[in-house]
Amino acid sequence: MSVQRRLLPNTAALAAFEAVARLGSFTAAARELDLTQGAVSRQINLLEEQFGRRLFERDSRNVRLSAAGETYAEAVRLALGQLRDAALGLMSNRHSGALNLAILPTFGTRWLMPLIPDFVARHPDITINFATRIGRFDFARERLDAAIHHGMPDWPEAESTLLMRETVMPVVSPEFLASRDIAEPADISRLPLLHMATRPGAWSEWFEAQGLEAPTGPGMQFEQFGTVAQACMAGLGVALLPEILIAGELQRGQLVPAPGQPMQSRSAYYLVVPHDKRGHPPVASFRDWLLGQIGKEPAVLAW
């Protein structure tokens, strides 16, 4: 067998290997692939013979990846995912017009989604595939082209374009406000505070901006702003929320400002694009459109 052929096993064998590695069972892999257990076993044997390495450790009851198998499995998962994406793009005739975009849950649903119909109307040849991500991730591993991110412009190997600053304010439900003696910002320190897990220092920054010492007691923690807003409307405490994300609740009177001045967050919203995707046409089109919606000139920072 030539060296080139030896390094390129057939996709059926790779699919069998990936399924066994993921499921930890020849039987489960055979069921998923609609093959017999013997057929799956033969595919794995072919791979092991081709590479001259044992990919699995087997005993009478269990099968587990060998050290070499674990390393190879990660690369195979990524390669098969890329092949599936390429096939889907080819069959749907939208490969060159696809944008795989990571969005923040609440920002995406409350601010971005109402604007997306305008982008679709202006760029009918581009299909946006949305994925929800809260923190940083590996663009290549996740197969994403860009991300709307809240934080600082220091994402490694990526270009960050400032979209907007963020102003946060303390809010409560009208019933909560009426049932408590809240006349000034210092009173808030004695009330239950609702915290965002991704912004552990937000309340401390706000109290500092008011010239007050932040309380040290525990408080409820949440992962998404939408959940914090619901908890606040239910009267569970005081929340520090971005004005842009609760405009509807404020307008409807479901939330009301608590005493104290709004504060501009130290972090901001950015469109983050990995360096190898800067020339991708759908990314450029989306970036220009997004900045047009915000009405600002781009401020680009590369890291």
From TrEMBL:
SUPFAM superfamilies on file: Periplasmic binding protein-like II, Winged helix' DNA-binding domain
Ranges of residues in domain HTH lysR-type: 9-66
Keywords: DNA-binding, Transcription, Transcription regulation
Matches recorded under InterPro entries: LysR-type_TF_proteobact-type, LysR_HTH_N, LysR_subst-bd, WH-like_DNA-bd_sf, WH_DNA-bd_sf
UniProt record, GO biological process: DNA-templated transcription
Superkingdom of this protein's organism: Bacteria
GO terms of molecular function: DNA-binding transcription factor activity; sequence-specific DNA binding
Family stated for the protein in its record: Belongs to the LysR transcriptional regulatory family.
Name of the protein in its database record: LysR family transcriptional regulator
Organism (species): Mesorhizobium atlanticum
